[in-house]
Amino acid sequence: MMKKIIITMTTLGLVAGAQMAAQAGPKEDLKNYRSYFTKKLPAGKTLDDYADGIYIYDENMYEAWQAIEEFPPYELDISAGEKEYNTPFANGKTYASCFKNGGKGIAQNYPYWDARAQKVKTFEAELNECRTKNGEKPLGWKKGKLAQLSAYLKNTSRGKAINVKVPNDPGALAAYNDGKQFYFARRGQLNFSCAHCHFDAAGKYIRANILSAGLGQATNFPVFRSKWGGLGTMHRRYGGCNKQVRAKPFKAQGSEYTNLEYFHTYMSNGLKLNAPSNRQ
After folding, report:
1. Does residue 241 have an active-site annotation?
2. Which pLDDT does position 21 carry in this prediction?
3. Whole-angstrom Cα distance, residue 232 to residue 144?
């Protein structure tokens, strides 16, 4: 049984600064990030197991999670997403017209740097962009139809390794570094960063909850969370994290969160997608 440790501000040292220097590039960052979590692996686990989230740290919780996954609560969401995907727009076209392979089996390559648009494009952003290009109104970013549509299409990439690219392009590197800076920057009344909980304190307890490792988090979104009672996107979770440290959330799909997702997902390169998934 894992020792229960209550995280407070006094127990957080933020060793991240020494591990991932501000001047390091993406490849060096990824190497250092993976090395850090390799050293923190629970007994009998592999680096790939970080895709299991908090369940890597507690065998009883893992077994309960696996039992739920036999009849997953997001199953109806996948079906709803498939229906949305196959429903023609008013002009007769469908989502398939906007993507290579119709959007199936490609989610592992997102987000990516769009040199023409000079910004990071997430999978959900391109789904909504497909709608507006075809004369439809965009869907809400955090839950509902867009989350279901994303869940359906990401499920077609399940088992494929995340393969996010950061090209040697000034704009791409700037976006990546903005996301990196966001990840390690303190914010809110609690003065916490993403790294405080999901890098330094990964696997420890905060109140009654285990803190998941940053490595692997990007593999399972959108997720069905018990707390939400439904499905939600990564940007919904980002907003919730900001609220938990008593910071004002940024706009979903704004540059703050898209750049964060760029860095965050790149740090899970090589791990297999298991989206959608079920989390507490």
Report:
1. yes
2. 63
3. 8
